[in-house]
Amino acid sequence: MIKAYLGVDVGSVSTNLVVLNEQGELLAAKYLRTNGRPIQTVQEGIQKLGSEIASQIKIVGCGTTGSARYLSSMIVGADIVKNEITAHAIAACHEFENVHTIIEIGGQDSKIIILRDGVVTDFAMNTVCAAGTGSFLDQQASRLCIPIEDFGGYAAKSTNPVRIAGRCAVFAESDMIHKQQLGYNLEDIVAGLCEALVRNYMNNVGKGKEILAPVIFQGGVAANFGLVQAFNKYLGFDVVVPRHHAVMGAIGAAYLAREAVGMKGRSSFKGFDLEKIDFKTTSFECKGCSNACEVVQFFENKNLVARWGDRCGKWELQVS
Amino acid sequence: MKISFPRMGYSYIALKWLVENLGHECIVPPEPSNHTLDLGVRYAPEFACIPFKILLGTYIEVARMGAEAVVTSGGMGPCRAGYYWVMHKYLLEEMGLPLKIIAMEMPLLNLGDFWGKIDYLRRGGGVSLKELLRVLKVTWAKVKAIDDIEIRAHQVRPREVRRGDTTRAINTGLDYIDAAQGEEEIRQARQEAMDLLVGVERDDERQPLKIGIIGEIYVVLEPAANHYIQLLLGEMGVETDRSIYLSSYTRKNTIINLEGDLFAIARPYLNEAPIGGHGVNSIAETILYARHGFDGVVQLAPFSCIPEIVAKSIIPAVSRDFDIPVQTVFIDEQTGRAGVQTRLEAFVDLLQWRRERRHKQGKKVFSI
């Protein structure tokens, strides 16, 4: 049996799972759509991974990240829970030497991470704006009836990208429709949209950051060649897209699990057979004081396994 | 008269005592909740900042609880908050809520006005001048005791063994202060509260990161407006100090106080006219926290707050020169708690990572 580490990244749009061996080589990866059902998606992903490789490996460490990192940690039994910024930085540092900048564009958020001498020195995430994220691209692709996988291909064929206002998703869309009604061809509009997204990213998330090469471009959106091209054009040098760009968050979580288990000794991983377990979340409002905290309860087969959300910790303490 | 005031952290305990001992009935403002914010957002102009909206919501709530007047602060200079009370007054009038707004301007600006308003409250409550002075003194003692207890709690929390012990201890301690009636009782209550905090089971092996909290006064002082950031960081194992305590204007035991000239400290970075609000403070305080060996600084800014936006654009230079990372958190009614949590977690990781690199000590989470 090979010793292996599991990394789980549950985001708003996609759920990614990877298995790494002790040397950090990727043994298996799953990229699933979360579809608003993180619990079922994680269960399904774990099951699929298990049927593929459970017979050859033994999971000795498990880490979770992404916006559902706490939820998924309770489902799989994680040894470490980390935010996605740190997870992405860790993954890029393991895969490349001397990384200076990481651009990460996911389903609902985008971030920039600045590193110097192997240490994160600064980072930023988009705040309340969805322009420049995967969801917006998805939406525009479906409006134009282009499969999202072909989006980059269209952009690559453009010779003269149109200028589209990229400040805000709503303005971008109306400006796009305006350009389309003027009769511009689809390729130029798609390429123009990619450039608008890059401008928006740089003026928003990348504002005031010193962007030095090498720049690693990761996240699901890095698959879009149109955006890669637009970034290259904007920066004046080529960005690097890692081979496993879509699952870098999960890879980072797996590396972090390796560190965490090294310190704590053994893994809390529950195994691949999760499908028959019934997980459920409920909540209630505490009446203990005027704070009226919303207390969230997590059940595993009708057993209460975790409670959180109370500021004073009184409910949390009653569980363990 | 039934009197209320804006809620800022735990200061309501002292202000309640003040109002009651001036011979009035106190309507204690409820802790700002989603309901408060909903009310504020509903009746405020969309582009007003979050303090405006929370205060408006609070005023509506206390008016419905029977308050006849609120005592609040005025202000001067380029920050629009100085005129908020006027706007609040008009909005409340439009809604037909009979709430009188008594805005205290800075005493140095118009001493007559300041004194006139205090005297109005005194006469309305039927209290002698001598008694007024005593009441103000005791109130001040409460303010200081509350701040002392809170400062200690933020030092204890990152070391607590069981999550929530510190929070429960400080809540009990503040009840003691609430019950205390004179300076001697306050002294005793303060001591008992401190004893409770000292009694919290701690892990003194930990070496918590230290983060300074700076920014606009309202979002710095009111936990409900800043996602309980000091509690959140404390429970992540981070010791925090914040730049503003109500009592810090007159004392030296807080790191940031107005004894030192913040303008002089900020001058190498901002030589122009004051930019209003707490913008200059934010620049100077970043420098002060760096000098005091803090690992990082979190700037809290209401969304659309001009002074903090100006400060934000200057802070990267300060951050570089003094080698101290700064994370800005903008706050408005759209800000999701999850986003703030993620940023803070990442910021704490960043600081931990830096510290490990520098000292090659402590637990190695980031040994790449």
Could you please describe the fold and organization of this structure?
The complex is a heterodimer of chains A (320) and B (368). With 320 residues, chain A is α/β, with parallel strands linked by helices. Chain A has three domains: 2-88 and 249-264, ATPase, nucleotide binding domain (Nucleotidyltransferase, domain 5, 2-Layer Sandwich), CATH 3.30.420; 97-241, Nucleotidyltransferase, domain 5 (2-Layer Sandwich); 279-317, no CATH class. Chain A is built from ten helices and twelve strands. Chain A has a five-stranded mixed β-sheet. A four-stranded mixed β-sheet of chain A has the order 8-7-6-9, covered by helices on one side. In chain A, helix 2 links the parallel strand 4 and strand 5. In chain A, helix 1 packs across helix 2 (69-76), helix 6 (169-181) packs antiparallel against helix 7 (186-204) and helix 7 (186-204) packs across helix 8 (225-235). The radius of gyration of chain A is 21 Å and the shape is globular. Chain B is an alpha/beta fold. Chain B folds into two domains: 2-127, 3-Layer(aba) Sandwich (Rossmann fold), CATH 3.40.50; 208-368, 3-Layer(aba) Sandwich (Rossmann fold), CATH 3.40.50.11900. Chain B has helices at 12-21, 34-43, 50-64, 84-95, 111-125, 129-156, 165-179, 183-198, 217-221, 229-235, 262-266, 279-291, 306-322, 337-359, and strands spanning 2-4, 25-26, 69-73, 100-104, 209-215, 238-242, 296-302, 326-331. In chain B, helix 6 runs antiparallel to helix 7. Chain B is globular and about 65 Å long. The model of chain B has no long low-confidence stretch (mean pLDDT 89). The interface between A and B is medium-sized, with 34 and 36 residues.
